[in-house]
């Protein structure tokens, strides 16, 4: 029914004529029909000017579909906050949309693996109730859902292929995002996390890794410049975070593919495709140490004692920075590795990768003692990739295409933390690990 009770809307089943029909209640007359595939469920706006039919918005005056949202909401839809927002129930999550922009603001997963079967809203819009496939009813506080809406900024038009990278400054004040196209037309955007305004936009060809210095004064980018010739000239470039100006550039073939700063802001490590990891002094840029390793990712331990490197082929090595030697090296996977993190306590290292068994690959999360390199635990056949440790090192955050889960490292139980909007290209934790930023492919 419309809010004033004058009209009744009905949705035919997909197997029939796929129409929304509107009736005059007082006259008991059919008024009009709008062709809408999979029109169920239905909801009127509070002023009766709009009618939601699943993922499509109908203007009741023009009797035309004026908007279409990207996500099917087969199990219930409602208008919220003076019709400024639309909430819809999909298979496994609630989806919140801004009505004016049609942009999905957030997705909120069910607290269990149950799928949503139905949705109802209280009259005062304070509560949402979801009927689950497990026979339970789940309550959501609308105010808390609105508070959990992710802050969204645009890094530019969606890239067609290419690289995408993200970094969060140690002081928490800046996020750097990089995206390019297959034509190598890329740029770094630097965002202020207090105002959420873009501070700088830096054109750069192909960036493979980003890192902030420990004092958050410098942003480092490494990669290669295809325009310099067939040898694909590698580079590392420092930018002043305040001005966005380049303060130092080092060019040397081949490609430079990974970079990291130590927590004491004394050293930074850089990897080139020549299978050499070099440590340099932040102030003088002089080489202070090096070791041979085919690194895809570099991470310093929180105390700066160790530099941990991961290769795509599944090896992990820990370099003792003070002694200038390899502390340990392990073959973490016989297939390939995908991600790695060092716990905030500095005691553990987590890796995510694939072990090959005949023709099959099995994804696994493995934990390692940071001092000895001994494997302390393994979680086999997981369906999510590693994002990182919680601030107290007791939880492990894992991300799949649309969800982030928290795994308890003592009980090995996991739970959904939130649902992601869009597919993730890269991510970065805030320094206190209370927030997660992710770069979506859109």
Which descriptors apply to this entry?
442 residues; mainly beta; Methylamine Dehydrogenase, Chain H; 2 domains; four-stranded antiparallel β-sheet; 1 helix; elongated
* Count of domains: 2
Strand order of the largest sheet: 4-5-6-7
By CATH, the architecture of the largest domain is named 7 Propeller
Low-confidence stretches: none
GO molecular function: RNA polymerase II general transcription initiation factor activity
Pfam families: PQQ_2, WD40
Organism: marine sediment metagenome
Protein name: Pyrrolo-quinoline quinone repeat domain-containing protein
Please sum up the structure shown.
Helix content is 1%, strand content 53%.
Description of the molecule:
Residues 233-373 form the Pyrrolo-quinoline quinone repeat domain. It holds the Pfam family PQQ_2. One of its GO terms (molecular function) is RNA polymerase II general transcription initiation factor activity. With 442 residues, the protein is mostly beta strands. The protein folds into two domains: 7-147, 7 Propeller (Methylamine Dehydrogenase, Chain H), CATH 2.130.10; 164-440, Methylamine Dehydrogenase, Chain H (7 Propeller). It contains one helix and 40 strands. The strands form eleven sheets. Strands 4-5-6-7 form a four-stranded antiparallel sheet, with no helix packed on it. It has a four-stranded antiparallel sheet with strand order 8-9-10-11, with no helix packed on it. The two termini are 37 Å apart.
């Amino acid at each position: 029914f419309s809010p004033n009770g004058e009209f009744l809307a009905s949705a035919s089943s997909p197997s029939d004529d796929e129409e929304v029909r509107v009736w005059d209640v007082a006259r008991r007359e059919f008024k009009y029909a709008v062709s809408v595939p999979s029109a169920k469920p239905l909801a009127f706006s509070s002023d009766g000017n709009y009618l939601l039919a699943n993922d499509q918005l109908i203007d009741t005056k023009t009797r035309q579909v004026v908007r279409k949202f990207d996500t099917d909401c087969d199990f219930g839809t409602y208008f919220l906050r003076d019709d400024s927002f639309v909430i819809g129930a999909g298979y496994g999550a609630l989806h919140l949309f801004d009505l004016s922009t049609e942009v999905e603001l957030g997705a909120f997963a069910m607290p269990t693996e149950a799928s949503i079967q139905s949705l109802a809203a209280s009259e005062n819009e304070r509560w949402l109730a979801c009927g689950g496939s497990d026979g339970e009813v789940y309550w959501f506080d609308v105010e808390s859902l609105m508070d959990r809406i992710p802050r969204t900024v645009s890094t530019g038009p969606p890239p067609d292929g290419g690289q995408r990278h993200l970094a969060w400054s140690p002081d928490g004040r800046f996020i750097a995002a990089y995206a390019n196209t297959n034509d190598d037309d890329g740029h770094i955007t630097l965002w202020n996390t207090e105002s959420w305004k873009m501070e700088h936009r830096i054109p750069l060809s192909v960036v493979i890794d980003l890192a902030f210095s420990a004092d958050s004064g410098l942003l480092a980018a490494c990669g290669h410049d295809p325009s310099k010739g067939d040898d694909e000239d590698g580079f590392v470039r420092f930018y002043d975070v305040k001005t966005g100006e380049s303060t130092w550039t080092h060019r040397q073939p081949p490609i430079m593919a990974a970079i990291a700063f130590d927590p004491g802001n004394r050293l930074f490590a850089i990897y080139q495709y020549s299978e050499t990891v070099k440590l340099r002094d932040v102030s003088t840029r002089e080489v202070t140490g090096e070791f041979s390793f085919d690194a895809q990712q570099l991470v310093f331990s929180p105390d700066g004692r160790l530099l941990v490197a991961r290769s795509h082929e599944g090896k992990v090595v820990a370099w003792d920075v003070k002694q200038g030697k390899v502390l340990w090296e392990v073959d973490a996977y016989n297939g390939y590795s995908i991600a790695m993190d060092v716990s905030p306590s500095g005691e553990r290292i987590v890796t995510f990768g694939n072990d090959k068994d005949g023709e099959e690959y099995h994804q696994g999360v493995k934990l390692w003692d940071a001092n000895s390199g001994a494997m302390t635990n393994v979680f086999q056949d997981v369906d999510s990739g590693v994002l990182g440790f919680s601030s107290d090192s007791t939880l492990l955050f894992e991300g799949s295409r649309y969800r982030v889960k928290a795994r308890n490292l003592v009980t090995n139980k996991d739970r959904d933390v939130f649902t992601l909007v869009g597919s993730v290209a890269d991510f970065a934790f805030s320094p206190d690990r209370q927030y997660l930023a992710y770069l979506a492919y859109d």
